[in-house]
Amino acid sequence: MKILFVHQNFPGQYLHLARHLGATPGNQVVFITQRLDADLPGIKKLVYKPQREVTRGVHHYLRETEAGVLNAQNVARVALDLKNSGFVPDVMLGHNGWGEIWYLKEVFPDTPLIGYFEFFYRTHGADVGFEPGPPLIFDVGPRIRTKNLGNLLGLDVSDYGQCPTQWQKSRYPDIYQSKLHVTHEGIDTERVVPDRTARYAVPNTGLELTANDEVLTYVSRNLEPYRGFPSFMRSLPAILAARPKVQVLVVGGDDTSYGPKPADGKTFRAQLLEELGSGIDLDRVHFLGKVAYSSFLKILQISTVHVYLTYPFVLSWSMLEAMSAGCLIVGSRTQPVEEVIRDGENGLLVDIFKPDEIAHKVIEALADPHAYDGLRHNARQTIVDNYDLKTICLPAQLRLLELAARSGMR
Fold this sequence. Notes:
The chain is an alpha/beta fold. It is built from 14 helices and 15 strands. The protein has 2 domains: 2-186 and 389-407, Rossmann fold; 199-386, Rossmann fold (3-Layer(aba) Sandwich), CATH 3.40.50. It has helices at 15-23, 63-84, 104-107, 140-147, 149-157, 166-170, 229-242, 268-276, 293-301, 317-324, 335-338, 355-367, 373-386, 389-407, and strands at residues 2-6, 28-33, 43-47, 91-95, 113-116, 160-163, 180-182, 199-202, 207-210, 215-222, 247-253, 285-289, 305-308, 329-332, 348-350. Helix 8 (268-276) links the parallel strand 11 (247-253) and strand 12. The longest helix has 22 residues, at 63-84.
């Protein structure tokens, strides 16, 4: 089979699927991306970049759309070269988020396309307006409606769609629901396992922590409000005061992935440290930045309590991986989390905007960690039963790919 992938950040959500297909004899796998510094065996990688920057002064509603068009044009150019070289895929897969798949059918009109769809923006019921504050200004509605131009283009051009969770699928318009399939990328539960022998050396401290130590963990790609970072930080003074031996490991960068950047030009971390002052003991709160995956796993394996907070938005892989590692999750009572975690059964849920409630749950769990061993076991079992890579998710992705390929043979 000939398969074409497109994702600007190779391999993105396609790591496991692309690796499997690249290792399968008889397949020809091509991957179009912007990323230069990564490869997978059996996969031919083709790199593109936009011809220019987004037009200075373009209407702010349209910046993302123009960026998507620029990506789509250059992906189409690469695809045309592929076609002229004799490569016509049997099926195409691509993430819709950056416009890359919009013009693929102009090049390969008879090849089925599976689009990856993460989030349809709404002015109610999800991230927009979720944070307490003054009513939204009128500009928000038109801006959010326009933000979905790329979603609608991708939905129209795709023959099939993939969504990672039921809640994320539910955000899309009813008219497109029939083409959307809930298929998570999967968690490698053979690699992400509980390990009581794990050890983690905290950089630049001389401190080595184990699963026998009292360790509170927090992980996010970036430390920002969408992932509940302010509430987590505001919970720490009470936790540190009540648990004098706790060590806090915070993983994440200082950029902003979602939502507006800090207005004063500082990072959210700097803002919170300034706000909380001496309430944060930096001898016990360790900001690790972005870490290697091997270190990330060790951090999860030594965790006594793991805090995962999010707005109603895209669910992070890290929460599912933490559950697979047997972590006790204190998670936000928000729709993406509630799809996976049942309060008191396989984790604990709290109000994302109540640092006192977060602190209370964490302190209770740190005080008697073995009382929650059943929740840890159930958390891992939830992932094994529903998100396991080899037995659940990869087979589901392959079935969707085969369904699409067969539809192109008619």
